[in-house]
Amino acid sequence: MALENTLIQDKLTETFNNDVFNFQQERDIFSLEASADKITPLILFLKNDPELKFHFLTDLCGIHYPDNESERQFAVVYHLHNWYENKRLKIKVFLNGEKPEIKSVSNIFLSSNWMERETFDFYGINFIGHPQLKRILNMDEMVSHPMRKEFPMEDSGRTDKDDRFFGRTTTNC
């Protein structure tokens, strides 16, 4: 028997009430939004429920929405997969822009360790309880987070991007 969206939605709303909402089918992925303070029990429930069996975390990433109100400026998106039924699920959790933080799920899915570090590195989202939350791809000395929309597109002080080095001139001929 195929895992139906209605079963997922019913089980989640029965267990988490208003902390899960905005259920919708987006192409081939069933998606929902959840409250940030319920992410750990929600992920545990989805993984351990004998009917749902979302045993695989495909992806975890961040998003910056600078034009949203402060309570919804950042989001963390979780993609889960039930391999038995080949069913995918997307969970989006919005975070406060002034202090973006959420509990780590690295104790539930070990694969999230690297993904949470990458999200921290690029967006500055703090994953509470992460065993080693530090930069993973950028230099430790960096004070900004390059995937935030306020991050400058180009460093004006760089000389290695000077057009003269590429055989181009800035004068009109």
What topology does this entry show?
Layout: H1 5-16, E1 20-26, E2 29-34, H2 39-48, E3 56-64, E4 74-82, E5 87-95, E6 101-103, H3 112-123, E7 126-128
Parallel strand pairs: 2-5, 6-7
Antiparallel strand pairs: 1-2, 3-4, 4-5
Biased composition (Basic and acidic residues): 151-166
Organism: Flavobacterium crocinum
InterPro entries: NADH_DH_suC, NADH_quin_OxRdtase_su_C/D-like, NADH_UbQ_OxRdtase_30kDa_su, NADH_UbQ_OxRdtase_CS
Which features does this protein show?
173 residues; alpha/beta; Beta Polymerase, domain 2; five-stranded mixed beta sheet
Describe the structure.
- InterPro entries: NADH_DH_suC, NADH_quin_OxRdtase_su_C/D-like, NADH_UbQ_OxRdtase_30kDa_su, NADH_UbQ_OxRdtase_CS.
- Residues 33-155 form the NADH:ubiquinone oxidoreductase 30kDa subunit domain.
- It is a single chain.
- The protein has 173 residues and is of the alpha/beta class.
- The chain has one domain: NADH:ubiquinone oxidoreductase Nqo5 subunit (Beta Polymerase, domain 2), CATH 3.30.460.
- Helices cover 20% and strands 27% of the residues.
- It contains three helices and seven strands, in the order αββαββββαβ.
- The chain has helices spanning 5-16, 39-48, 112-123; strands spanning 20-26, 29-34, 56-64, 74-82, 87-95, 101-103, 126-128.
- The strands form two sheets. A five-stranded mixed β-sheet has the order 1-2-5-4-3. The chain has a two-stranded parallel ribbon with strand order 6-7.
- The longest helix is centred in the N-terminal third of the chain and has 12 residues, at 5-16.
- The chain is elongated.
- 27% of the residues are buried.
